[in-house]
């Protein structure tokens, strides 16, 4: 790659002038000057390693005849001997110098790591770095200044970084596997995953089926094929006419069906999870609805960003602004003038989608009247969505979070929740909660009568109770048709991507308009990602490598052990923790489970098939495959709610990430992240600087501002002394203040130090623990002797930090940068700067003077 830098700077390694390209039979570089000291015939080569004029020359060395010296002159003879003796001495000195230089050259050359791992890592680091930048002023630019040049953001993506790039690599591996023929030697469920992929790829079949699967599921959700709003706009006497005045709608049946088949919360949030105070018990939780879709294929980064923009524009802009143009026969520019880019894109998109849908269900529909109906439907749906969002915000602001989250937990019976709801809307009543749970449980082994459900204790919070009560009050006052429009459009948006090519094209245009992506993910990768989301363990079968178990796993476990020991040393060294709290903290660390690589049972066909027992797929029914799989997952969660949640894998092995589970006191490190550029980098300094800091990050999550509240059993109890808690909180305020002062000039926003606190604590602690773990490794195994080619001028400690910096290289679109601020993780450049500016070890290693950007004057934030 031409980077505009000199060849010398970018060269990985070369047989330069010191050895002139000569190697002995053991492939050790040999300096050509040694050859000139040999006696007898030798071949003299030109500097480029070829014989002069294309031929080799023989040169003879002979003893000088004494007869050539005059016997008359003793002086000249004596002088001659002196000259000869002096020449011999000079020759010896030259030979000695040559030998010394050669020895140093060979030693220097032998200290260069030439393994393929080292060469690959060196090339990656060198081409990413901007070594003209002072590392003490901007270490992100120093390590990542040219990274974007070699890692352009895909046209279909809003951002790019190492995690996304390597996930794309894993997806290509999985795609190749899913494209292969079904084998009789593979577990049955692996073949089922390949069948699901085939169904997803069969776009001809999808177009042939048209919107029939969509219509079928709308009916399954107890929604009308033609929404009721069209009875207000279509001609009198239409086959869709109905009694609008007396129209009623059982919306509860619809939101339950959508929850069970799409795993999507609409108006009511439902979940089943371990009791925070006793993880051996599972409880039903009711509260505010989750805003993100859990439906696979719709959850990649671009779709998530699209939803954020969609929500913000709908909630902040008034849909009534478009009322004066009811026919909506507008182009994109006209729509943009009226509503702005966000709402414009959404209104334009759903209008076209519904238009196509109506033509499918009724080819003879009056288009002009239909347009009026579409406008009214969208307006009704958006108003309901905005109101629900407002109710959520009001509920969150109605209560002040307790200092101890345990105090926010509310245990309440279903009957008591109903009584409080009725009291809020008195004198009216609206029986809802028992009926809702009864419908959720109906097709499971926990199906129960109303009396039994009424006595069931659920888990919620006061803010959630406030939301549920106000939501019921709002629904009582809202026309049933508006609620129907909201639910109908919500379901349509989730399903339409999985129908025809024309519908997917409309969505691609919508994404281009709103978030600026120029391309789309290839269908093959799109399908591979979706199948991986649903069949993660089955698809990861291809990644299960026994060599990993033999070779890599022990090394990673050794590294994690070193990091635990480092954490223990840091805990012992603290002055703000009392002795009892220190002991319990180290005990929790010792008890923390780790799941590394892949489950041992993944290669066991019987066990893998049992994991997916009850799943069915068909090569010709793509949407039904997806819905069936999600429904299977939801029923499994509900059916197993009477059993303690097993402590196990938090994700599939194919995920390029790592996880900490508070209630399991466990970390999960998939095999997908135990690869270049996170691991297997050639030198342990690099491995500890990369994957080591990730391992430390996950371990430290067990002791961040949230993790510290869970004991070693995974229960939320106060297990630290009050004095220690107060000292801890004081130290977290330093981090909040530090990160809140980081300003992103490209978008004109500051980092939210409160939102990102937990991740910042984990970043800082994880890096320090891994650095100390590397020092432990060096003390026990010995210093690393080999240098990295092209980066020989850096010490191993410096390479540790360079590897850490390289982790966070990234590139964003402006839209992605802005919405990244809503994430609990800081942007990569802030993660890097925040951690290293708190590190005395970094400042010492790079000799950064106090007062430089990376070693500021203000006190450094530190907990561990």
UniProtKB/TrEMBL annotation:
Q: Which cofactor does it need?
A: Zn(2+)
Q: Name one GO molecular function term.
A: metalloendopeptidase activity
Q: Name one Pfam family in it.
A: Peptidase_M13
- UniProt-listed PROSITE patterns: NEPRILYSIN (PS51885)
- State which residue ranges cross the membrane: 83-106
Keywords for this protein: Hydrolase, Membrane, Metal-binding, Metalloprotease, Protease, Transmembrane, Transmembrane helix, Zinc
Subcellular localization is given as: Cell membrane
Q: Which InterPro entries match?
A: MetalloPept_cat_dom_sf, Peptidase_M13, Peptidase_M13_C, Peptidase_M13_dom_2, Peptidase_M13_N
- SUPFAM superfamilies membership: Metalloproteases ('zincins'), catalytic domain
Superkingdom classification of source: Eukaryota
Q: Which residues form the Peptidase M13 N-terminal domain?
A: 135-599
In the record, biological process GO terms are: protein processing
Task: Please list the residue ranges annotated as the Peptidase M13 C-terminal domain.
Answer: 657-859
Topology relative to the lipid bilayer, per the entry, is:
Single-pass type II membrane protein
Listed GO CC annotations: plasma membrane
Q: Which family does it belong to?
A: Belongs to the peptidase M13 family.
Q: What is this protein called?
A: GH18955
Source species of the chain: Drosophila grimshawi
Highest classification ranks of the organism = Eukaryota, Metazoa, Ecdysozoa, Arthropoda, Hexapoda
